[in-house]
Amino acid sequence: MPDSPQNLFTDGQSSRTRRDMIRVGMLGGLSLAASLRLRAEDTERKELKSGIFIFMEGGPSHLDTFDLKPEAPSGVRGEFKPVSTSSTGVQICEHLPLMAQRAQHYAVVRGIAHNLADHGVGKKYLLTGNRPSQTLNYPEYGCVVSHEHPSEHDLPTSVSIDESFVGPGYLGSQYSPLTADKPRFGFPYSVRGVSLEDGLTIEKYRSQRQLLTDLDTAFDGFENLDDQVQGLDRFSRQAFDIISSPRTRSAFDLSEEDSKESARFGKHEFGQSLLLAARLIEAGVHFVTVRLRPAEFDFDTHSQNFSKLKALLAPFDRGFAALLDRLQERNLFDSTAILATGEFGRTPKINGQGGRDHWARAMCALLAGGNVRGGQVIGTSDATASEPAGEALTPDDLAASFYHNIGIPATTEFQTNVGRPIMLVRDGKPIKAAFGG
């Protein structure tokens, strides 16, 4: 069993002591501190793959993207037509032409089913691979990677492009991702703290850090502090390492990209976010989450499903295709596990507003990179994409497969606040077909 977080849920000192310590920890202006953790220097390094999770928030329509049903009645099949891809027998939506040309590099997973057709709980389910619980908060993928496979000391292990929704759960706040805003094409991009804004130079920061270190010394011996307080000095040290690291600041600096390369990903937030994700993986960050959510990317198409999707799929197609190409060009595709999905699918029947409503009984996902065998369709749905045809796959199975591809067994156990160990993915198993089994 892997090492468990220490003192994650102890009661610790009085509230007054905690406030005092928090005030000390904030003197250096460490905006990264709350999002970072520092593992012991003698932590055993394990071989792993990096990961990129692309979350299409809102619930993209599976029938109009990767699971079209051209033989279904018109009120089900909709306006979009399927097109053949570079992989024999695999068809996807006509509005994904670049992805169709690269079908050999990813696997389409169909027939995924659950029963949580609500955005809030559905997101928690798909972002963690575990059904939400009233007694236990499960961690997001990147937080688990931060616990199991920390990056080098001067790099964040996990970065969330756009804010994190679930967070580290039972692992504790020291495994939270570094949160970065979505970049915009043609605009300077910076991350607060990493970019040293408002005239704060490295030398000034060094002085503030020394002051923080001196003050921390006065609090030696506080061994029973709660998790958030106990980690402040450790977070501060890593925050300094990251802020002063040339390779971290360079990884976030999109201005270093050639204009043609930036344009290849697309002049929109999604494409630029994937370009940033690629740069972070290249720099040595182990996990990047890219959240596509309103207002620019809203897959919650209760009305005007087809006109909205037509506008959404073009940048998705361009950005995702560019990411696949870039990782291959940089020899990182085989060491980077990729998962793209939303929280559920959409109703087979088109409603009176030309839209599709929430539908969790059938959805789809994409797996790519690492050991995934591309150019195939895994799982099937029935004639109207209403439910799986045959044995259903679950979000738990998808999570177990993603973790397996990253190099973390889904059976890994962690100690939690409910007084017992719990498996990383309780009810899912890796999908053998995804890896050629």
What are the salient characteristics of this protein?
437 residues; alpha/beta; Alkaline Phosphatase, subunit A; eight-stranded mixed β-sheet; two-stranded antiparallel ribbon; 14 strands; globular; disordered N terminus
Task: Write up what this structure looks like.
The chain has 437 residues and is an alpha/beta fold. The chain has one domain: Alkaline Phosphatase, subunit A. It is 31% helix and 13% strand. The protein contains 13 helices and 14 strands. The protein has helices spanning 15-26, 74-77, 97-101, 119-128, 141-148, 202-217, 227-230, 232-243, 246-251, 259-265, 269-283, 305-329, 395-406; strands spanning 50-56, 82-84, 91-93, 106-112, 158-161, 178-180, 287-292, 336-341, 345-346, 358-359, 363-368, 376-378, 413-415, 421-423. α6 (202-217) runs antiparallel to α8 (232-243) and α11 packs parallel to α12 (305-329). 51% of the residues are buried. The model is unreliable at 1-31 and 33-46 (pLDDT under 50).
User: Which word captures the global form?
Assistant: globular
Strand content: 5-15%
Q: Count the E strands.
A: 14
CATH architecture: 3-Layer(aba) Sandwich
In the predicted model, the low-confidence regions spanning at least 5 consecutive residues are: 1-31, 33-46
Strand order of the largest sheet: 6-5-7-1-8-11-4-12
**Helical content band:** 25-40%
Distance between the termini: 26 Å
Q: What is the CATH C level class, in words? A: Alpha Beta
The biggest beta sheet reads:
8 strands, mixed
**How many domain modules?**
1
* The CATH topology: Alkaline Phosphatase, subunit A
Helix-strand topology string: HEHEEHEHHEEHHHHHHEHEEEEEHEE
Radius of gyration computed on alpha carbons: 22 Å
